[in-house]
Amino acid sequence: MVNSLDPPDAPLDVLVVGGGPTGLALAAQLERYGVRFRVVDRQPDRVHESRALAVQPRTLEVLAGVGGVAEEMVERGNRAVRLQMHVGERAVPVRLFDIGVEDTAYPYLLFLSQAETERILGDHLGGRGVRVERGTELLDLDPDADADLDADLDSGLAPDAPGDAVICTLRHGDGSEETVAARYVVGCDGAHSRVRQAAGIPFEGRAYPQTFVLADLEADGIEPGWAHAFLSPRGLLLFFPLEAPATWRLLAMRPDCDTTPVERSVELAEVQRLADAYTGASVRLRDPVWMTNFRLHNRGARHYRAGRVFLAGDAAHIHSPAGAQGMNTGIQDAVNLGWKLGLVSTGRARPELLDTYEPERAPVGRNVLRFTDRAFTIGTSTHPLVRFARTQVAPRLMPLALRIRAGRAYGLRTVTQLRIHYRSSPVSQDGPGAPRRGPRAGDRLPDAPVSVDGRPTTLHRELAAPGHHLLLCGRARAFAHDHAAADALADVWPAGHGPSALTGHLLSPDPAPGGLHDLDGLALRRLGLSADRTGHYLIRPDGHIGYRAGGTDLSGLRDYLSAWRLT
């Protein structure tokens, strides 16, 4: 954030363009690392209506360390774990979240309005003195300004002038213009991203031909606490349970013959007619809070970075809402980029660390585009074969398919984004003697219950502080000569070096003062270790494993840290 006591011409580390969920999540990360940043958004106010409505377990995990944000989201949201598929007069219950999510504290899909998500993130930032500059528009940017910022960062010194920076022109709500120099600019400004356009990054894909109706309202005739999917030859009608601003979110596909312009306002009577066609007039709609027409696209940015300009969220990828992937993918883009910008822009890591953002997140974005496109096509196609499969085959095979536990677990972990990994990333490395089982370098660290000095807690909760965490795994006596991870690695990563300090933890089946006591061995088993085997894991700020190795020799870890840290 920009401190009011700083001189007005002090250099800006990061300019965040866009104050939606992605931009707010990025700002929350930058604030944790003491970065000098601003957040601007061209809209005069945050959204009070929204399309995104579901938060995946992995998103809650990456937000869990951000000042109670995840906890408030859970408190405000609706934990739905049940789905009913309706075909004609048949209602087929579908079991969800009963397998494959045992290693997370959030084994459910949280239904929460995007507007509420933005409010919670915005309140968190406001409590820390971060203000979103509403009504401020990015007019243009010049990504080719000249100077020697990278040399300044390599020297470990923060430059006292903008230097090698992106020169941005902003226009405020009163019409005045401002020139801002920022070392990095991140476009979180949506599908029509001005940042992406100014950086010259192509946005490739297509628009779907269908028009949809979205509404937050009350509905009588459907069982509360469930998500409901009405399948018909014409397409899909979905009801999702919300707490606010209304009990239900409706999404319905207009028939192909409907030529209603997307910009036209929506009336309750026509939404009721749509619902009647799908439900056989069994559901009565009332008290709408918000209704709109909209079209869907499937598009992705060719690159997520152009020099000092980055893209995240809808600026990088837009797609159908199938599987509730969009907002979640954007927030996870922001978390991935946020800790890297936090370390690099404050001189605590080499600028090359930023080169890992696109190789890690672009494959995730491409997979989401493919997944949502296939799911959307199956759910909306009017091709006779697809229509027959949707209305006749799927309702009969779904209960049988869900009995296959391995397949159900795999599918659920994919949808919940718990399977996302960065194994091919330059910053993921397996060291000598790495366990053959368990998560590999680049994988997400599984959660598990542990205790500290008799206090029940979880692995994720104890590793939630900003910065990297080192897990020394095994019997306490095996690491006795190391005393503590910070001492063992002090010559590479000094303890107390701001929020990037390496925090060491002993994860052991034996109780030890201040250690993580794995009483039943579950945490170690999930890491692929037995009670008598030793290993060590470096956990990144986003909860993924950066480095892992067997034994107690930390020399490989020291080399890994040297490769990415300032020397």
Structure report:
- The protein is of the alpha/beta class and 567 residues long.
- Among the domains are: 12-73 and 113-204 and 299-361, FAD/NAD(P)-binding domain (3-Layer(bba) Sandwich); 429-564, Glutaredoxin, CATH 3.40.30.120.
- Helices cover 28% and strands 27% of the residues.
- Strands 1, 2, 8, 9, 10, 11, 17 and 18 form an eight-stranded mixed sheet that branches. Strands 6-5-13-14-15-12-16-19 form an eight-stranded mixed sheet.
What's the topology here?
Layout: E1 12-17, H1 21-32, E2 37-41, E3 54-55, H2 57-63, H3 69-76, E4 78-80, E5 82-87, E6 90-95, E7 109-111, H4 114-126, E8 132-134, E9 137-142, H5 149-154, E10 166-171, E11 177-187, H6 194-199, E12 203-220, E13 227-232, E14 235-241, E15 248-253, H7 268-279, E16 284-301, E17 305-306, E18 309-311, E19 317-318, H8 326-345, H9 357-380, H10 384-401, H11 405-415, E20 429-430, E21 449-452, E22 455-458, H12 459-462, E23 469-473, H13 485-488, E24 503-508, E25 516-517, H14 522-526, E26 535-539, E27 545-550, H15 555-564
Parallel strand pairs: 1-2, 1-11, 2-8, 5-13, 11-18, 20-27, 23-24, 24-25
Antiparallel strand pairs: 3-7, 4-7, 5-6, 9-10, 10-11, 12-15, 12-16, 13-14, 14-15, 16-19, 17-18, 21-22, 23-26, 26-27
